[in-house]
Amino acid sequence: MSLPNHAPVPELYVSYDSAQKLKADAGSLPSWDLTQRQICDLELLMNGGFHPLKGFLTEADYDGVVENMRLADGRLWPMPVTLDVSEKFAEGVEPGQDIALRDAEGVILAILSVTDKWVPNKDREAEKVFGANDLAHPAVNYLHHTAGKVYLGGPITGIQPPVHYDFKMRRDTPNELRAFFRKMGWTRVVAFQTRNPLHRAHQELTFRAAREAQANLLIHPVVGMTKPGDIDHFTRVRCYEAVLDQYPSSTTTLSLLNLAMRMGGPREAVWHGLIRRNHGCTHMIVGRDHAGPGKNSEGKDFYGPYDAQELFKAHADEIGVEMVDFKQMVYVQEKAQYFPVDEVPEGSTVLDISGTELRRRLREGLEIPEWFSFPDVVSELRRTSPARSKQGFTVFFTGLSGSGKSTIANALMVKLMEMGGRPVTLLDGDVVRKHLSSELGFSKEHRDINIKRIGYVASEITKNGGIAICAPIAPYTATRRAVREMIEAFGAFIEVHVATPIEECERRDRKGLYKLAREGKIKEFTGISDPYEVPAKAELVVDTANVSVDHCAHQVILKLEQMGLIRA
What are the Sulphate adenylyltransferase catalytic domain coordinates in residue numbering (predicted)? Predict the structure, then answer.
């Protein structure tokens, strides 16, 4: 049953005294250090945001959710909320045990009473929940390449919420929001879900939606985990705060939702509706391609533009939230105001700027007109998205041993240092092995760890406006993708495939590694006894077999100029 929007929603926290006792007793329990996504999930489990869930899904609940969006008892729930752990950790845990759930710093947040342990069929989960077992979908890629292989399920005993040091006054639990609505006398509340900054069209859209629903407005942006490459939440929240003054006073509030999005399209829309119901909302704006992740590996949209709205409408009564259609707003030049796209006066001049065009203008330092966005919002975006020629970036060379990666990387470093303007750091595979990964071997697991360390260092260099040049072998697609996502959170990532044929690499082999590999004296050697997964969409492909190093380095320079990362 849907709760009235002023009544408290059940939480999973115990009393202060019980929590202190559990903290003391937890020292003897096995401990699992939660991932960022698991911390987001746990917080919404404990504070009632995921009501009616009492903990991480059991196997029966998981099967029901995956197959038909229903828990084992028949209640609607579209998205698996599972505790995925490593095989090694799972070996030491059996149903009937309690485990302590801790944050990255070891602070205990909750106790999980394990009732279920199983190895899921992740291919089936991807197909059923996300509609395709396609690694171009960020949640499917996470499922296969980041999530643990074993799931644990069972009820949660909440001890304390995760600590947030940022925007504390903007973070509300479901019951805090319900109390606010009760205090303000808001009986009808329309939620606006967003993971992007708000511009004038969004302000007009949300204002109209609230007016038509005769409701107050909750701007409820996600600040947990969104799509890789999205604008960071610090910048977005400053943009939201800059827009609040544009609404009539006492009609609108802003609250942050620490949700880990799955970008699951139609199912995610239903999930968002249930979460907003728990936060006391009666209405929710559902947009075209709501929570869609973009294109699949064949270049087509994962979901149809209205799939999310149709699934939401079909379950609206059970969700307990009324859907408000997202109306696309466009600016009519002659009227100097925004209109819904289907209400534009005939013969009018319509102006619009797409998200792609906005990013281009920010990247190239071009004007963003006041009819499109608020000056304060543009100012915030320019602070964290300077012109591309002033941003940090990473050039990531990948290729077989002996392909010429390090030589080209050195030549590129010298050319960039000659130009000046930004610090340049070379992270060569052999040098990193010596100084950063000396304890690692050459198993697949250790090679992945080494590449991710390189990616982490490169992301920090990129974040701080420098240029990182990386030259590891990096044979695996999934690891290169993980590094790309790490770096693209802060700047551009340019993958350069040094596609020198293996015959030429062997001919050049000064260390005799290929010979030893063919004799079986070196195990898991890339290109001989271990695969090299060729990049499918590298920004640049070079072959050093018949051209000079200088020419290859110059090709990279030309690519950087073309992308606007360095001045021509």
Answer: 171-383
Number of Cβ atoms within 10 Å of the Cβ of 343:
10
Q: Which residues pair with 118 in a beta bridge?
A: 151
Please say if 194 is a catalytic residue: yes
- Residues making up the annotated binding site for ATP are 399-406
Q: At what angle do helices 549-562 and 405-419 cross, to 10 degrees?
A: 60
Q: Please give the structure tokens belonging to residue 268.
A: 């995610």
The residue type at 274: L
Q: Indicate which residue of 195, 236, 276, 480 is catalytic.
A: 195
Residue type, 262: R
Single-letter amino acid code for the residue at 413: M
pTM: 0.78
CA–CA separation, 513 and 523 (whole Å) = 11
**CB-CB contact of 3 with 76 (8 Å):** no
Diameter of the chain measured on Cα atoms = 79
Which segments are annotated as binding site? 399-406
| Residue 13, phi-psi category: left (phi > 0), alpha (psi -120 to 50), beta (remainder) | beta
Single out the catalytic residue among 196, 384, 407, 410: 196
Phi, psi angle pair for 99, to nearest 5°: -130, 145
Domains of the chain, first to last: 16-158 (3.10.400.10), 168-257+263-329 (3.40.50.620), 388-562 (3.40.50.300)
Q: CA-CA distances (angstroms) from residue 525 to 18, 342, 445, 470, 515?
A: 55, 61, 14, 20, 11
What string of pLDDT tens digits covers the 568 residues of the chain? 445 777 899 999 999 999 999 999 888 999 999 999 999 999 999 999 999 999 999 999 999 999 999 999 999 999 999 999 999 999 999 999 999 999 989 999 999 999 999 999 999 999 999 999 999 999 999 999 999 999 999 999 999 999 999 999 999 999 999 999 999 999 999 999 998 888 998 898 999 889 989 999 999 999 998 887 788 899 999 999 999 988 887 899 999 999 999 999 999 999 999 999 999 999 999 988 899 998 999 999 999 989 999 999 999 999 999 999 887 888 999 999 998 888 899 889 999 888 778 878 887 778 899 999 999 999 988 887 777 888 899 999 999 988 889 999 999 999 999 988 899 999 987 778 888 888 887 788 888 889 999 999 999 999 999 999 999 999 999 899 999 999 988 889 999 999 989 898 888 887 788 888 888 888 888 888 888 999 998 999 998 888 888 999 999 999 999 998 988 6
CA dist., res. 408 & res. 500, Å (int): 12
Contact 66, 153 (CB under 8 A): no
Residue of 35, 82, 194, 479 marked active site? 194
Q: Is 195 a catalytic residue?
A: yes
